[in-house]
Amino acid sequence: MRKILVGGAALAAAGWALRQVPAELGARPLQSGPDRAARIRRSPQFSNGTFVNTMPDASTSVPTAPPVGMLRELAKDREQRRPNGLIPLRVPPTDDPVGLRAVWYGHASTLVELDGRKVLFDPVWSKRPSPSQLAGPKRHQPVPIELNELPQVDAIAISHDHYDHLDMATVRWLTATQKAPFLVPLGIGAHLERWGVPLFRIIELDWEEEAEVAGLRFVSTAARHFSGRSLTRNDTLWGSWVVAGPTRRVFYAGDSGYFEGYKGIGAAHGPFDLTLMPIGAYSPAWPDIHMNPEEAINANLDLGGRLMLPVHWATFTLALHPWAEPVRRLWREAKARDVKIVVPRPGQGIDTADAPAVDAWWEMLA
Predict the structure, then answer these.
(1) What does the alpha-carbon distance between residue 259 and residue 253 come to, in Å, rounded to a whole number?
(2) Contact status, residue 103 vs residue 111, Cβ threshold 8 Å
(3) Is the whole model's pTM more than 0.85, yes or no?
(4) Overall average pLDDT of the 313-342 stretch
(5) Nearest CA to 104 among 117, 121, 88?
(6) Could you point out which of 192, 213, 270, 329 has its C-alpha 20 to 30 Å from the C-alpha of 25?
């Protein structure tokens, strides 16, 4: 009887935990209303029922089944794919900066303060980037602050709808506690509407469309990636963001493989005082959808980036490379090519006018 009761309790707990999975999957944009469906079908990026890349379709580089030998590789060197200890956190600053400041919270989640305004990129506060908190890669460290400790922000910008960049629980919390609009690529507004975000707080843009929020100009720009929260792929657009204020410019790459489009973005919208560039979760199995560190340096140079802050590493294990490999390769390449970078600890505020020297803090955890 005790075993039956324990088993029943476990099943009930699992059922309770899984109750949100249908909502986590989001909505089907083409079925979310005639206005959005018409905009999607008019998009130059939409062809034969899906969004596509300007370069060869990245979805061809995303395996639908594990490559031969992947399971064997997963079992090897598992300890190297996570930090050997607790990642040092910092308490984020609470004052208002004079110029341009960035606070990296982990993975891609970053607060950028420029020209007196605050922009939050790809906020993910859940423990796992997954449709269920029962499964999926788990955080290596907590977020430096709780969501209720965030300052009021002026805009929330999302790059694409993958779970490590668009988190339902975080979106719902920000909807209830913040007043800022969500700026998203075309189609993602359908997910937000399903999760309770009012339509007036959703600004949905195609590539090279722009909007002004709180005196900042936001331009939705290209990326080389893919989308999807279920087995259905590429029914929402992915992208990057240009944020331009009266005196400062910032570029956030989201997720992307390297592509020639960075030169065009730099020529049209740069140079940039700060670039936020992904450096982790790369693999020879998907070379077109995630940059490696050397390619991130190339992209930063194409963009005219004056200071580069690496994101998309350290927080979740999403590929087979060792935990510290991305930042080691990045620092080596940056020194070889005279590119100025900063590598903050999660929660550390980085003032671009007084950027600290790289101190290799990750080596004690590698």
Answers:
(1) 12
(2) yes
(3) yes
(4) 97
(5) 121
(6) 213
